[in-house]
Amino acid sequence: MDAFNSTQVSEFFLKGFSEYPALEHLLFPLCLVMYLVTLLGNTGIVAVSMLDVRLHTPMYFFLSNLSILDICYTSSFAPLMLVHFLSSQKTISFAGCGIQMCLSLSTGSTECLLLAIMAYDRYLAICWPLQYPVLMSHQLCLLLVGVAWSFALLKSVTETVIAMRLPFCGHHVISHFFCEIVEVLKLACGDKSVSEALLLAGSILLLPMPLALICLSYTLILVTVLRVPSAAGRRKAFSTCSAHLTVVVLFYGAVIYTYMKPKTKEAHVSDGVFTVLYAVVTPMLNPVIYSLRNREVKEAARKVWNKNWTSR
Question: Fewest C-beta in 10 Å: which of 27, 59, 168, 207?
Fold first, then answer.
């Protein structure tokens, strides 16, 4: 019966925090500043990695890709979210919703794979230092990143197309601040089994499996580092991993809390605030973490800055 009551959807209403206008006005300047810092910080990481020859290594190639991912991810929802914080018209077109869903899925999926690739890179660099330049060649770097981006995009396009082709009925209110696929599927009244199966398969491929590879890589790194006789050598080895490990804990910790916590019938506003902040804060902190905990990045940034000032 629901299938007969389905309607042609032209737009969706993004509920977000529409019931709490005071909270929206509080979040607007906070999220705006964090979004601008995200753009500036991640663009800076990419620029420094390109301009300083000393950073033309696999680790910084992967880091540049991570920064590009963070820019694309936040830009897929943050500008519209900021507009909606100050507007009573919180709608998004059907096509716009599909594009936003696909971009957020694709960039988030790619980041899961990229973090695993970066852990594998650190494993090769620390456990096989002499063979590292051959094992992690430039061609392999391009191949790994290309496969990650391509697989995530193909997966996300497939999930988005199947989800958006479902019939929608009843109200068209998405209980989120952007077109998140799980919330959109709640509005569909057709057979959602294919979409749900794809989401489950994707979740298994992109959460437990990369996380298992990361844990395995760092277990092998730890075993190798503990065999290093000098304390200085151990500190140097750990310092090359600390930034990446911090980003992994931050990223997976937020994802696990958001998607694996027990579901309640009543959505709490605190959960919504956390979701907004983690979506904006995590990409903002990545360049901060790599800059503060990495002497090479700080020295390269200082060199590029001084070069620009002296050339004026």
Answer: 207
Separation CA 58–CA 149 (nearest Å):
16
pTM for the whole thing?
A: 0.88
pLDDT in 10s for each residue of the chain, 312 residues: 444 445 577 889 998 888 888 888 998 999 999 999 999 999 989 988 888 888 889 999 999 999 999 999 999 999 999 999 998 889 999 999 999 999 999 999 999 999 999 999 999 999 998 999 999 999 999 999 999 999 999 999 999 999 999 988 877 899 888 898 988 998 988 889 999 899 889 888 888 899 999 999 999 998 988 887 777 777 777 777 888 888 888 888 877 776 666 555 455 666 677 778 778 888 888 888 877 656 666 676 667 666 655 555
DSSP 222: H
Exposed (0-12), middle (13-18) or buried (19+): which is 228, by Cβ within 10 Å?
Answer: middle
Among residues 119, 102, 134, which one has the least CA distance to residue 66?
A: 119
Residue 107, helix vs strand vs coil: helix
* Tokens representing residue 89 in the block: 């018209």
Among 246, 231, 230, which Cα is nearest to 292's?
A: 246
* Contact partners, residue 44, CB within 8 Å, separation at least 6: 287, 301
Taking alpha carbons only, the member of 32, 33, 42 closest to residue 286 is 42
- Helix/strand/coil (H/E/C) assignment for every residue in 37-68: HHHHHHHHHHHHHHHCHHHCCHHHHHHHHHHH
